[in-house]
Amino acid sequence: MTQLDADWAVGSQQEHFVDPLLDALVSLSRYYGMPASADSLTSGLPLVDGQLDVELFPRAAERAGLAARLARQNLSQIHNLLLPCVLLLKGRRCCILLKVDHEKGEAHILQPEVGDGEMILPIDELADSFTGNVFYVKKKYQFDQRSPEVLGDKNNTGSGERSCRSCRFTGMYWLLHC
């Protein structure tokens, strides 16, 4: 029997599941220079039918050092500054939107189920499959404990408290009065 005649050995020892959201997250972790394995992203998470679902996606993204936020938007409203993002498609599929060229009417996407090859397709064709739900995914900002020191902020003790009583922390930034 020649090599060409041999049957393909498709892992009977290992199950092969297609998990589009997880595959998209693995691709985005590589894109942002923080590669993570599928196992490291999902270990200990309560997967639904062995797959990452919409509710678990932000938790898995956080494990890769990424922040993910689900939004409902029309395809035409997604700005190029927010790319790449994960579009949720009909049939429990998804794709990573890399670029939208409205002048040419083209969208550049990655379909995680088939690997990291870029596809270019008409925006109208993508819009027909798009559910209107999108995950915006960006690298999480890492605050440095040395920030007050480096910035020369003498009012900040470094413990998250300020010496001025009228200054307060809003949860995202300081409102400074001193």
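That was protein one. Protein two is written in the same sequence-then-structure order:
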Amino acid sequence: MGEPDSTAAELATLRAQASRGDQDALDQLVELAGSRNDLDELRALAEAGSTDAVDLLVELAEERGDRAELQRLATAGSQDAADVLDELDS
């Protein structure tokens, strides 16, 4: 189910590096999760503080018309999600 270049071991290594503050590893994880549409991974990264993951979640939720996800993100503080919800309501 993962990217052809990304084995489970490689993802585990990236997650460990990201958890130690490695920004490059975090950026790679966000990019890989986005390319796989892995919402669970993106949510975990967003909850850990990745603004890039939040931005990607907003974008994917907007594409899907997922109001529940947008509302969850807006409630968590994403102004972009709140703006998208406002646009959808107008």
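The first helix runs from residue 8 to 19. Keep this in mind for the problem set.
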